[in-house]
Amino acid sequence: MIKGWLIYSELDSIENKAYIEWFITEAKKQLIDLQLVLREKLTIGVMNNKHYCLLEGQQVELPNFAVVRTVESILNRQLEHLGIQVFNSSHLSEVANHKAKTYFEVAKLGIPMMDTIFVKSHNLTDHTPMPYPFVIKEATGRGGRQVFFIRNQKEWESFYHDVKPSDYVIQSTEVKLGKDLRVFVVGKEIIAAVLRESNTDFRANYKLGGSATLYSLSREEKALIDKIIHHFNFGMVGIDFLIGHNGELIFNEIEDIVGSRTLSAVSDINLLEKYVGYIRTSKNQDS
Question: Which residues span the domain enclosing 141?
Answer without folding.
Answer: 116-172
